[in-house]
Design goal:
The protein has 12 helices and 13 strands. By secondary structure, the chain is an alpha/beta fold. Helix 1 runs parallel beside helix 4 and helix 9 packs parallel to helix 10.
Length: 334
């Protein structure tokens, strides 16, 4: 199965429904299999003490204000999901409160992600088990013991995906940790992949090559856009390159039977092959007495090198140019 590519929009839509729909269309056109948004309900998520991770905004006095300004109503979320369904691109969200979880489920969203900060969220431990959802977990700031704990709670869900992640924005290439993808698959026997916060596509490409089942990558229209995730985002043009690599990789990795392939290339084999010819032009009556008289010339399909022994000591019965291939009727018969 090919790697699922998730275009992470986050809050780059800035609370604009129209811009959010434009992001969904661009994600579809860039080859994404899914588009993901962050579903923040400020009144259930944030306190007055929550600090900005990045001081990026001149209009938001607090994170609570930012979540509120960029949030959508239930009807707007439904509009976005319906638009994604119309475009045949999977719609998923990250939730940051049990109320957001309930809203997502009520909208029929079947794939839900928990960010790295909520891996061991006790409220989610109580509310998520038993739901009919595909749950994606990010592990960007977690120990193995913490991942073990989350797995023990969520392992019986219909589908569970655990992503390698490093919660640095952007993540240095040396700290991506692709090795942990393999450890996750080995430990838990679940699908895995990468929530990639690097600035560029190299780690994503390598993750696909390394067997990732799912990759999430922040994507934007332009690197000059406003927001806290710009430094760890790529443009849709770069996302399209990732998508092309993924599709090409699926073709490249197909097994090929050498014998079967050779059989299908008979015409090209003749074109590139060689057949028996004379090294120099000879006239009728010439007797070929030495193997050194023969060479091989393109194309193939004529007499083989081993056939030269049949003509030693034989007389040419018609002229034979060194630029034509030898045929049996060039020589006297035995």
């Amino acid at each position: 199965m090919s790697c699922v590519l998730v275009a992470e929009i986050g809050l780059s839509h800035e609370g604009s429904l129209g811009l959010a729909k434009a992001f969904i269309l661009a994600a579809k056109e860039s080859g994404a299999d899914a588009v993901k948004f962050q579903m923040h309900l400020a009144e259930f998520e944030s306190s007055g003490q929550e600090r900005f991770r990045v001081l990026f905004s001149d209009q938001d006095v607090s994170r609570h204000n930012y979540w509120s300004r960029t949030s959508f109503s239930a009807q707007e979320w439904r509009t976005l999901k319906d638009y994604a369904d119309k475009l045949d691109i999977t719609f998923l969200v990250s939730v940051f409160s049990t109320q957001a979880l309930q809203l997502a489920v009520s909208l029929g969203i079947k794939t839900i992600k928990l960010g790295s900060g909520d891996l061991n969220n006790e409220e989610f431990f109580q509310t998520i088990p038993g739901l009919d959802i595909h749950l994606i977990l990010s592990t960007g700031m977690s120990t193995w013991a913490e991942i073990d704990k989350a797995f023990s709670v969520y392992k019986n869900l219909p589908k569970l995906t655990i992503l390698q992640c490093t919660s640095k924005y952007p993540t240095p290439l040396s700290e991506v940790g692709i090795n942990n993808m393999h450890e996750i698959k080995s430990r838990y026997s679940v699908e895995t992949g990468l929530s990639d916060h690097t600035d560029g596509i190299s780690s994503t490409v390598f993750a696909i090559f390394s067997g990732a089942n799912l990759i999430e990558k922040h994507v934007i229209f332009d690197k000059k856009m406003f927001g806290p995730d710009i430094s760890s985002s790529i443009t849709f043009e770069d996302f399209k390159r990732i998508s092309k690599f993924r599709d090409d990789f699926e073709l490249i990795r197909q097994e090929v039977d050498k014998d079967e392939m050779a059989g299908s290339l008979s015409e090209i084999r003749d074109l590139f092959g060689r057949s028996l010819a004379l090294k120099e032009s000879r006239t009728a009556g010439f007797v070929v007495e030495n193997e050194s008289e023969f060479v091989l010339r393109k194309p193939g399909g004529g007499l083989a090198w081993s056939d030269r022994n049949k003509f030693l000591g034989k007389r040419l019965i018609k002229d034979c140019s060194n630029f034509e291939l030898i045929e049996h009727d060039h020589f006297e018969s035995t």
